[in-house]
Structure formats: C-alpha cells, structure tokens
Amino acid sequence: MYHCKVCNYESNAVVGFTQHMKLHSNSPNCPFACGVSECSRVFRKFAAFKSHLYRDHKSYQRSLRSSAYENIHRTLICQIEFCQSTFTNLKEFVNHLKSHIQEGRKIKCPFRGCEKEFGVKSTFSSHISRTHRNSSSEHVHETFFDNPHQNMGQSSCTETEIVEELGPEEALDTELFLKNLSLFYLKLQAKLLLPASVIQTIIEEFQDIYDLAQSDVFSKLKQKLSVLGVSNTTITNVIEELKKEDVFRQGNCILRTDQRRKTVFKTAFNYVEPQPLYLGANDSGKECFAQYVPVKETLGALFESDSFKKQYAESHSRLSTNNNVLEDIWDGQNATDNALFKSDTPSLALILYQDAFEVVNPLGSGRKKHKVLAVYLTLGNILPHNRSNIDHMQLVLLCREQDIKYFGQEKVFSLLIKDLQDLEDSGIVLRNGSVVRGAVCAIAGDNLGSHSIGGFLENFSRSTFFCRFCDIDRQTFESSPLKTCSARTKLSHQQHVEELAACSTDSVGGIKFDSVFNQLHYFHVCQPGLPPCLGHDLFEGIVSYDLALCINYLVNQEKHFTYAELNQSISQFKYLGNEANDKPPEISPGSEKLSGHAVQNWCLLRLVPLLIGDRIKNPLESRVWQLILLLREVVGYVCAPKITVDQVAYLNVLIEEYIQSRVELFPAHTLKPKHHYLSHYPELILKFGPLIRLWTLRFESKHTFFKQCARKLHNFKNLCATLAERHQLFQAYLGAGCLFPPTIQVERGTEFYVGDYNEKIKAATAGLNFTQGTTVATNEVTVRGTKYKKGMYVVLGQDEEGLHMGGIKLILIHQNLVYFVVGMQQAVDMVDLGVHSLTDTDQESNYTCVKQDDLLDYYPLAEYKWRGTSMIIFHHSF
C-alpha cells in the first residue's frame, strides 16, 4: 500500500499514487516522499520521485500484485456449461476464464455490477486491467461461489487484492485539485512576488490557450465518435457535460480576478490580517499608520499547523537535564528562573527581533524616506536547527522609521504590548480547549537597535555610559579595560528612571527613558533581556578591526609576508565544504578593517593559519600571531552551539587574556565598546545559553523578502500596508504545507546490499541488521539542515590521546536514522598553527559504523591538504 505522508491518501496502484502526489506539487516544504513505509527518501523533483518508485521498488510492486491473488479461502466455480472447475485463487480463476475465450466461447465479466461479455482475450484482459484492477474477491458476483449466500466480508485477506499491475483510472480529487491551483497562484503572488497585473495576464492568456487546445480535442473526439455511429445529439451532450465538469475551468472561474483570488487565499488558508495602527498626523499634516500583525492570532495560526504542533511537542521532550551543559535558551538562567517557563503549565518563549532596513538604494534620493522598522517573531519552542530557517519567522510590526521617531515607541508598540500582556495572563485557547500562555524571553537586535528599544543611549563613540549590561563609564573602561562594573538590574534601572523623572537632564546612568517592554510581567530589558549579537560584535567588529590590525603589523613591522602574497593566497586557495560558500574578499593594504561581511570574516579567521601560517618564521615567538590564534580560540567557544559551565569559565580567562594582550600590543589603538561587550559574554552565555542561538544574521535575512517585494511591485504608496499584506499571504502559503523541511533529506541513493561492498565495510556493518529492503546507501544526506557528504570528516570522540576523527566512506539510512561508515583517524593539535593534523591518512587501518546522533559534534569538516599534510579546521569548539 502506497501512503501519502501529506494527506494520508492510500493506494495499491503506483500510477494512482504518483498522479495523486502531483496534487501536492505546490504545497510548500512538501517534497515528494516515497509512499513505501520502510523508505525515507524524499525528492524535490517529480521526475526523480517517479523514477525512484519504478526503479527501486519493483519488488514492492510485485508483492502488491501478488497479494491480489493470494489464497482467498473461498471456492470460485466456473459457470461455463460442462466445466464447473473450482478455484481458491482469484488470479487462477481469471486466467481460466481467458482460456475459455481462446476456445471460442464468450464469457461474462465475473465482477458485480458489470454485465459485459467478451469473446476476445485481449479485450477481456484490458477490461479487467482498466475497470477492475483494484477489485478483490469480495467484488466477484455471488453466483460464482460455491456458497452464494456466504458473507462476502469474511475473507481473511487484509490487503486489497489487485487484479492487474496497472491501477484504475481513479477519479480526480476535485477539492485537492482546486487547492493545488490556488496554491500555485498564491505562490506566484506571495513567493515569486509577481504583481497582480502580471498574474492576471498569465491566467487569462493560459485560459485562452487551454480553450483552443480543448476545442481541438473536442473536434477530433466528435469526428471519431461520428465514425463509430454515435449521434450528433449524444456527442454534443457529452461534450457539454465534459465542459461543465472541467475542474481547471471551474477553478479559473473561481479565481478569475485579483479580488476573488485574495478572498480565496484569506479564507481557505491560515491568513492573519494585518491591522493598521493609526499614529496621528505628522508635521506635514499627513496621517501616518503602522501595520501590526496580532501576535495572539499569529500564534493561533501556528498551532493550526501539524508540523508546528509536532515541533512544539518535540522541543519540550528534548529539554536538557544536564545542568552543566548549555545547548539552548532553555538552559540559560533567564529561562530557568522565569516563573512562567518553570511552571508545570505549557508555555511559549517568544523571541522578538527589531531592526530598520532600507527598501531602496541607500545612496539614492529615496533613502530614509522609505526606511522601515520591522519587528519579527520566532519561538524558543522551535528546535534550534529549524529556528534559523526564515520561513517560519513571523511578522509582528512594520513602521516607517521616521514615524517611530516622531510619534514615539509607546504609541507604535501599544497594540503589541497589550497583546503580550494578555498572552502572559490569559494565553491562547487551542482547538482542543487547552490554554497556552507565553512570554518574551529575549529581544534580539544590533547594538543600535537594542539600545534604542531599551531606552539606553545610542551614541557609542562619545557617551559616558555605553553599556546596557553594566554601569561602567567610558573613563573607567579606558583606564581599566578588563573591569566590568555593577550589573544593571531591574531595581537599579527603576532607580535611574525615577532620577530621570525628577531632574531635567536627558539621561541618567545611560538611560533616556523607561522601555515600554518593561511593562510586561515576565520580561525586563535589564534581566538582561537584550542579548548581544556576536555577528555584529565579533565578526563585523572585533574580528574585522583587530585581524586587520594584526595583519598590518605582520606585514609592515615583522615583515613575514606582503599584502600581495596574502591576497594571492586568499584568491587561489581551494575552499572546501561550507567554506566554499563564504570565500573572503581580498584585503586592501593598510585598511583599518576587513571588507567582508560577518560570515566571510569568520571564514577568514578560521583559515588564516593555512593562508599565511607557513610564512610566520617563529610562530611561538610572534606575540601578534599568538594574538590571532587566541582570537580564533575565543571565537570558537563563543560560537559553540553547545558549551559546558567549565568551558564558560575558561572562555572568561581567554577573553581577559585577549583584551590584555590587545592593549599591550597596540596601545595606540584604543579599544572599542565591543571589546567591553565581549567581556560580558561568559556571564551572558550563562543567562541566555549559547549566544549563537540568538545572533541576528538569520533575522536580517528576512529583510530580503520585503526589499524584493518593494522593488518588484514598484509601489511605494502606503508601503508598509503593501509589504505586510504580501508577507501575510506568504505566511498563509507556507502554512498550507509544512513549516519545516524533513529532518532527513536524501536525493540520490540505492538499496544497500552488503555484498556489493568491500570487506572493511562488511565488517563495519556486521550485526547491524542493514537489510536490502530497509536500508538506503548514499553519498550525500542532509540531517537537520546540515549536509554531509562522502569525503567529509566528523568528530567521533575524545580521550587523553586526543580527538578521534572519521572520514565518511558511506552513508546509510535505516529506519529514519543516519549512519556513517567512517575510516578512523587521530587528530593532533598543532599548537603553533591552531589547527589539527590527521594521522594514518591512508585510512586502511580501521572502519567503523557510527550513528549521526552519537557524534561528539554534529558539524562536518573538510580535509585540507597543506604542505603534504592533511589538516582539519574546526568550525567551533566542543
């Protein structure tokens, strides 16, 4: 039985199943999944999916066909005169009837409700195949049984007995077809961002072409039926009935205008209507509006998605029980100390993100005029690997930046604060009657945005108080850069707010006003509630400036290499694995900062030992080179997706050592506020969990949708309303399918037959019950968004001898679990370079099979050849 994993449709016929799967072609995040229960293969393209079914599951098709003729425990009797042969197998009975046709006799179709007679064997076979291929012994007319009054439901067969290989001409699911057509038009409008006028042209022109083609088909049909003697009246009536039942024409009639399509989109799918929030009239007398998407309605729409409900349940079942390990926000003190989150009742942890972006050329005449402030929402209840997927991120608010500056945060965020307070107190009521409450656990953003929304001073270069985490002043920071002053608390913040209200100054202790988000019961900006963004602080801040400073010193002072040699290494280096997508740009001679974006700078920092390490004459004696390696180590721990409390303490020591060395080596180059923020990272990791879970770069990717939307639509009148509606249509489109991609995705693979592989693989997989019918072998697989390929390396374990690595030789998928057959090797730390070299590079000594879930670290690594040695560059610490 072929089973559809989208809508639970089932079919015994591969033809019917493949045709059904076409009806899901426009459902988002619903790849074509194999309908065989033991197979976990999914495909992006229908052709590959169909080829897989016919090529890799021939034995399964044969088993379905053979089940049609298995013993039915009832005796069938041939009704031909003087024959009276008996059978207990339906296939044998049908073949026997064919033998009578060969004798020149006419036989009657044995199935109930069919009165046709046949004198030609091929015609009878074709009739059985097309009309009765899903029929079983239960459908045979009672007169063909030895006991005509026997209950036809007593058959012991549990599967439908298919009579022939080909499936029946199943009736098209009209409702599903119309849904698929609606999703196609919605995809054009919301995902591909085509203007409504373009979509209207496509529909009208395609309908005209379809009508012409259909008229030609009906004309030819009329001619052929006339030759067969069918009257013109009958032909005309049949054609008219076919036109009336044409589902494509019916669908286009329903969706024929932009207004009709929007009505269908908003009623048929989980569409959450943006609410215009009237702000008032500005200096020009123009009425201004923000667009607010109700948070409670958004959360309710999410719970309508089966994929989200599954994710919500799974995230709670996977909460860490090891207090010494921090893997997610739930392990941080902010979550464990939150009265709502630590209660026994179900709760939602909201992560908000705010940022302003330009939808036009930032150097053009429209800059600032169309700059938009956006607030997005994600949930800590979503598993971390899916949280970085921008599709599920929800829109909360859009407002022109100049409007929020003019009217103030209290007015712009008024509806949001009201909804969040209601969510804390009353929660949302689900369909099953249960109530789920929620609270904000963090508001992410860059430093400027976080200080703006938190009510802190936003001048980082000149203001006395520049830190939102402690009360340090600029003079103290410049004289004692390692010092962190008293942490800001809810109480100290309130005292500053009261002082501010009592005096006439613009700020007190770095605070300009009391943030509207402090009105919430379970959130405060000084919990802390505004986490740092390591993308901005580290890769576009400290790494960008300090690495450029160190390189300049190595070039001009120690003269280990030139900028030309460095840039030649950068441009000619063979980047592998994930680094191939983030190649760093060349470095301008004497530049104060790197020119790459955050991920490119991170890539350069990781690979710098292989780019210039061989040119450093005495690496252990060069303090600047050691400073680079120290920065790499700091970044490795800060970016770790899992970190222990002991490692956090060690990170604190590393950061202090780095800042002290940075001051000593480059006294003329003053530290930046971001260096001070870095000193808070250890305590912030304990508060929020791994900071990589809250960095803003994935949120910033969400801006791309709105920028493309504005540029493609060429309509800047009431821009926020246009963008909000388009985005909510896009979310309605996504909600019609699966919000998250499959956990395991395999494109190309074959059934695993151990006899086809060498002795080492046979030995590694011995005793693991990897059978041919239940195991798929492949060279590439994606697990929780991470792609593994043959030839990559994974970290197997660690002991007193060092790290144990495994070079992937074969990937196996068995019962929805991923296994790697790897060649085991030892990784040796090269202290002077900050990288690891691999021993036993021939990998002939030992093969083993390891489950993906059992790896010490999930991240796959590339093998780099450097001066004849195999090198491994770790992505982060573990």
Identify the notable features of this structure and list them briefly.
metal-binding; 40% helix; Znf_C2H2_type; ten-stranded antiparallel β-sheet; C2H2-type domain-containing protein; alpha+beta
Shape: globular
Given as residue ranges, the uncertain stretches (5+ residues, pLDDT < 50) are: 68-72, 148-168
- Assign the structural class, choosing from mainly alpha, mainly beta, alpha/beta, alpha+beta, or little secondary structure: alpha+beta
Distance between the termini: 45 Å
Cα gyration radius (Å): 34 Å
Strand content: 15-25%
Total number of strands: 30
Number of distinct helices:
31
User: How many domains would you count in the coordinates?
Assistant: 5
The main sheet comes to: 10 strands, antiparallel
Helix fraction by DSSP (H/I, runs of at least 4):
40-55%
Look at the structure and give the mean pLDDT. 89
